[in-house]
Amino acid sequence: MMSPKLITLVIISAIFIQLTNAGYAPNAAPELPDGFCPKDTGMLTRTTGECMCKNEGKEACQGSKCQYAYGTSFYHYSCEDCKCV
């Protein structure tokens, strides 16, 4: 029979492994629409289907689903009216 300390260690290890794997981006890139993220105004992320605007600030992205975090404006490919300016 396994000791309670060993069982606890196994459970904590399993949870830790799941949490660390949760932060990884997908391996495959999504299919992106034509004209998504023009290179002159944005930079495409490799696997998450987001366009990161080259200009800084909240005003760098225009559209209904623009996001702003860590000083960068960006949008997901599912936003049909978003664009970097």
Kindly summarize this structure in a few lines:
By secondary structure, the protein is of the alpha+beta class. The chain is 22% helix and 22% strand.
H/E element sequence: HEEEEEE
Question: How would you state the average pLDDT, rounded?
Answer: 87
Distance between the termini: 64 Å
Low-confidence runs (pLDDT<50, min 5 residues)?
none
Radius of gyration: 19 Å
Q: How is the biggest beta sheet arranged?
A: 4 strands, antiparallel
Protein structure class:
alpha+beta
Q: How many β strands by DSSP?
A: 6
Estimated helix fraction: 10-25%
Number of helices: 1
Strand order of the largest sheet: 1-2-5-4
Strand content: 15-25%
Instruction: Note the overall shape.
Output: elongated
